[in-house]
Amino acid sequence: MDPLVWSADESAERLAGPTADLDAGVLRGVPAIVVDDAHLLPTDALDPLALLPLVCIGVVAPDANAPGFDVVAPDLVTGRLLAEAVHNRPNAATALAQVLRASEGQATEAALLLESTAYATLQAGPEFAAWLAGRGRRVRPEEPDPPVLVEYDGARVRLTLNRPRLHNAYSAAMRDALVEALRGLVAGDDRPVLLVGAGPSFCAGGDPAEFGSVDDPTAAHLIRTTANAAPWMDRLADRLTVRVHGAAVGAGVELAAFAHRVEATADATFCLPEVSMGLIPGAGGTLSVPRRIGRQRTLAWCLEDATIDAATALAWGLVDQVD
Question: Has this prediction a pTM greater than 0.90?
Answer without folding.
Answer: yes
